[in-house]
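Ops channel
N.P.: pipeline sanity check, posting one input/output pair.
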């Protein structure tokens, strides 16, 4: 039987990048996850934001910017659309005025992707979206995580007893048994804190926290070698908050922190994740209202493409 060709992005030499309906990487939009290996998904939710909202608009602008992505990775030679069936599966449902309902809806959406054998690569949305995604993907046991961020996101609560914000997802994920804390590495942490105890939870539970001050004394490859050793061969989630990158290169984010690593260092580190047992990934906190010339949206699209290539490399030609 002749193998059906995989869906391909629209050819920019035939249909200009500015034409047609925007989808991730200019791939076909597909309503059903049936037959999809890697699902590109938007999660337009920023109900967990505690200060500068706007990340709900991230998926739409990342879709627009992803028109700049081409078919083949220029360094690794990976052609992701030849190796795997990749499609834009639209946006997870959200309720912008009901946080708890949104968490339930997002979990249900990703549980369906998992049931169909899809590996999701998601565009946020604020960082709280990682929690409902992990509730779906790690429902059958805790996973490891490689986490790029300026913030640990392991605070307990905000504004009284609010347990669910973009500063708390990974504390909740550990408490709910979704993350194995001894298989979690956080890269790029920096910035002022609220209280001396802010990182106590992460440290006490075994997270490997790599501050930017340590990062700059080492190479990106050295950092990722350590991260690979920490997560090992087990199931691993990758979460990339764009505020990990210096705001000079990524201004469109809600909680910028001066002194991050560069976009090029970010790409090198993501490429170093090839071969890990990645069950899903996200790129979060792109906030177009604070962006300049769409450069952060383009960064988000580029990181999604890098992650896509890393995951697709595990599929056959």
């Amino acid at each position: 039987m002749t193998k059906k060709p995989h869906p391909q992005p629209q050819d920019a030499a035939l249909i200009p990048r500015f034409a047609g309906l925007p989808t991730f990487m200019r791939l076909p939009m597909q309503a059903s996850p049936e037959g999809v290996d890697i699902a590109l998904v938007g999660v337009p939710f920023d109900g967990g934001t505690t200060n500068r909202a706007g990340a709900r608009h991230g998926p739409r602008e990342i879709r627009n910017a992803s028109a700049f992505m081409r078919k083949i990775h220029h360094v690794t030679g990976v052609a992701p659309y030849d190796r795997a069936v990749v499609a834009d599966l639209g946006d997870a449902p959200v309720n912008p005025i009901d946080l708890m309902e949104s968490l339930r809806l997002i979990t249900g959406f990703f549980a369906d992707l998992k049931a169909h054998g899809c590996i999701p690569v998601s565009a946020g949305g604020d960082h709280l979206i990682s929690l409902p995604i992990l509730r779906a993907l790690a429902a059958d046991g805790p996973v490891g995580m490689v986490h790029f961020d300026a913030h640990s996101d392991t605070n307990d609560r905000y504004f009284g007893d609010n347990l669910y914000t973009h500063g708390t997802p990974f504390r909740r994920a550990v408490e709910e048994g979704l993350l194995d804390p001894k298989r979690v590495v956080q890269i790029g942490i920096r910035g002022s804190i609220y209280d001396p105890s802010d990182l106590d939870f992460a440290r006490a539970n075994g997270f490997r926290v790599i501050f930017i001050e340590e990062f700059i004394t080492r190479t990106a490859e050295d950092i990722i070698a350590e991260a690979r050793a920490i997560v090992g061969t087990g199931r691993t989630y990758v979460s990339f908050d764009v505020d990990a990158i210096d705001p000079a290169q990524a201004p469109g984010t809600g909680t910028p922190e001066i002194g991050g690593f560069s976009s090029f260092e970010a790409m090198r580190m993501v490429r170093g994740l090839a071969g890990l047992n990645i069950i899903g990934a996200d790129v979060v906190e792109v906030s177009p209202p604070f962006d300049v010339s769409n450069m952060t949206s383009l960064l988000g699209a580029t990181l999604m493409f890098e992650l896509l290539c890393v995951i697709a490399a595990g599929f056959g030609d």
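N.P.: looks fine end to end. The chain is about 30% helix and 15% strand.
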